[in-house]
Design brief:
The chain has about 550 residues and is an alpha+beta fold. It has 17 helices and 18 strands. Strands 3, 4, 5, 6, 11, 12, 13, 14, 15 and 16 form a ten-stranded mixed sheet that branches. Strands 1, 2, 7, 8, 9, 10, 17 and 18 form an eight-stranded mixed sheet that branches. α2 packs parallel to α6. It binds flavin-adenine dinucleotide (FAD). Flavin-adenine dinucleotide binds next to α2, β8 and β16.
């Protein structure tokens, strides 16, 4: 997606009359795009920022059944997303990776041993968990042995159950690529600004602005889906939609600390003293901790982790692992995401349902909000069913249940492991130490080969990062430095020190690909500096 490639896509967006235009390139919009295009519709998708810019790169990064929704008696939701986990693992085994979770159980706190057992049993049943992966209840000594850092006081036992971890932004990107291979015309950094209407007052297009090119144009559409996530109401306001069911936003933050400072043996799901549940998840050389759940009343574009958010998570973690005593200086990075929740009078944010909702306006706008990463496929199927109905077309069955998201490369985690070994040997043969193979394969899957081809005969970290920049520009729509360092590589969150060391080589590759002038270079560097500062915990002046 270098400069010429973007211009070509803009031409395609202008020239076609699409069955469907989707606003929003998060997992919801792209899931809908993939479902629709593989059912034979002509589809375009635009995102005002980047693919996965919104909540889809700022989640807990788990493909999970939502154990906590059992507490809210949301059995249907648990059953749907619980069963989706295994499907997503099969569709993208290098991106949806099995992970056992440990839940420590305390006397006089949380659900207790018996209710946890009952809850996990219902969970296994609803989610159709296979026998080898079913919950395991642990004695006190086994729990403390499994996680020696746990505060022993009051530990009654524990439970272990199966979930999957992912890279949310990369999962969203792999859906984007699969959809684009099937014919989706997608453009990031392209803002929907208004709708156009036909003589009957029905929406028949979207006015869009491609930001880097400063070009405004109309995209003709028979139907428009608003998958704007936290911005869904903002987009509904372009229309005459009366906004009967409004969205409220709940903020959830995660902080990252070096794994050596919180060297847990596995992912842990624990309850805090104020009754909330928090995850601590090891990833590469880090452990990340989250999330909070607080009402957010400002613009979704201005969400960040405050010092108070980080202190809350540090306090809860130090309470569980007293020998660790993390301090603010241990926090190397953070992210803050927003859950759009359907307003329910008299309920606080943590009690409001996480279920998705579809709204249709008089003028034909279909908006979808809420839901989870894990449930994206079923949400997409429902929305596209509705699109078919409203177009008066004969329905075609959804095909995504068996459509691999990784260029049909892997059928199982076992095959991923086999590929990992070959990548490791290849890196070693060109002078590297092979340690990067896990990162490369769980980030790029089988495309690792293309990246290694670009690295050439001598492997080094600098060469690898340069190859990633070229690859993500060419194949994955990386258009800005922030796209690359945040959503293509996750470097901002999990390896921020690499940004400083390799910015020059990456900048030069982007400059050449997009023909940036001095002003644009400065703008890119300013934006990157801003996201780096934001990730390192903000202290707003008015707090
Ligand atoms: P988004 O990803 O926010 O996408 C909306 C997109 O619309 C954005 O990219 C934005 O740029 C674009 N947009 C907005 N306005 C315009 C416009 N005018 N023109 C063009 N584009 C526009 N789910 C799980 O399954 N597992 C988890 O572990 C998990 N953890 C979570 C943790 C937190 C803290 C939060 C907040 C949510 C979590 N979720 C999790 C839920 C999940 O992340 C979300 O349901 C999902 O990412 C929502 O995706 P989306 O596409 O609807 O929204």
């Amino acid at each position: 997606m270098s400069k010429g490639n973007r211009l070509h896509r803009i031409d395609q967006l202008i020239a076609n009359d699409f069955d469907l235009v989707i606003i929003g390139g998060g997992i919801t919009g792209l899931g809908i795009g993939l479902d629709a295009v593989t059912r034979g519709l002509s589809v375009a998708l635009i995102d005002k920022n980047d693919i996965a810019y919104g909540t889809s790169s700022r989640s807990t990064k788990l493909i999970h059944g939502g154990l906590r929704y059992l507490k809210q008696l949301e059995f249907g939701l648990v059953k749907e997303v619980g069963s989706e986990r295994a499907i997503l693992h099969r569709l993208a085994p290098h991106l949806v990776i099995p992970e056992k979770m440990l839940i420590p159980i305390f006397e006089n706190r949380g659900l207790g041993f018996f209710l946890t057992y009952i809850g996990l049993s219902i969970y296994d049943l609803l989610a159709g968990v296979k026998s080898g992966d079913k919950r395991q209840m642990l004695s006190r000594s086994k729990t403390l042995h499994a996680e020696p850092l746990l505060k022993p006081d009051g530990v009654k036992g524990g439970a272990r159950y199966a979930e999957y971890r992912t890279d949310d932004a990369r999962l969203t990107l792999s859906i984007a690529r699969t959809a684009m291979d099937a014919g989706l015309i997608a453009l990031n950094h392209c803002h929907a600004e208004a709708f156009t209407y036909n003589a009957e007052g029905k929406i028949d297009g979207v006015m869009a602005k491609a930001t880097p090119e400063a070009r405004t144009f109309r995209i003709k559409a028979k139907r428009v889906v608003n998958a704007g996530g936290p911005w869904v109401d903002e987009i509904r306001k372009f229309d005459s939609d009366s906004l009967t069911k409004q969205i409220i936003l709940s903020k959830g933050v995660h902080i990252v600390v070096p794994h050596v400072r919180l060297p847990i043996q596995q992912a842990i799901y624990f309850d805090t003293e104020d009754g909330r549940m928090i995850f601590a998840i090891p990833r590469d050389r880090n452990t990340y901790i989250g999330t909070t759940d607080t009402l957010f009343n400002e613009s979704p574009d201005t969400v960040f982790t405050t010092q108070a958010d980080a202190e809350y998570l540090l306090r809860a973690t130090n309470n569980l692992f007293p020998s660790v005593q993390l301090v603010m200086a241990d926090v190397t990075s953070s992210w803050a995401g927003l859950r759009p929740l359907i307003r329910e009078e008299g309920k606080d944010t943590s009690a409001v349902s996480r279920r998705d909702e579809i709204f249709e306006s008089e003028s034909g706008l279909i908006s979808i909000a809420g839901g989870k990463l894990t449930g994206y496929r079923k949400m997409a199927e429902r929305v596209v069913n509705l699109v078919f109905k409203s177009l008066g077309k004969k329905d075609v069955q959804s095909k995504t249940r068996t459509l691999s998201l990784c260029q049909n490369a892997f059928q199982s985690w076992k095959e991923v492991v086999k590929y990992l070994t070959t990548v490791e040997s290849r890196i070693k043969a060109s002078g590297g130490d092979g340690l990067d193979s896990y990162y490369l394969v769980t980030t790029y899957g089988v495309d690792t080969d293309q990246i290694l081809d670009m690295v050439g005969s001598t492997y080094s970290l600098e060469q690898r990062i340069a190859a990633e920049a070229r690859f993500t520009i060419k194949i994955e729509m990386a258009t800005t430095l922030v796209d690359f360092f945040v959503r293509r590589t996750g470097m901002l969150y999990f390896n921020p020190e690499l940004i400083k060391d390799h910015i020059e080589v990456v900048l030069e590759i982007f400059r050449l690909a997009f023909e940036w002038d001095e002003a644009r270079i400065q703008k890119e560097l300013d934006e990157l500096t801003k996201v780096i500062e934001t990730a390192k915990i903000k202290i707003p002046l008015h707090e």
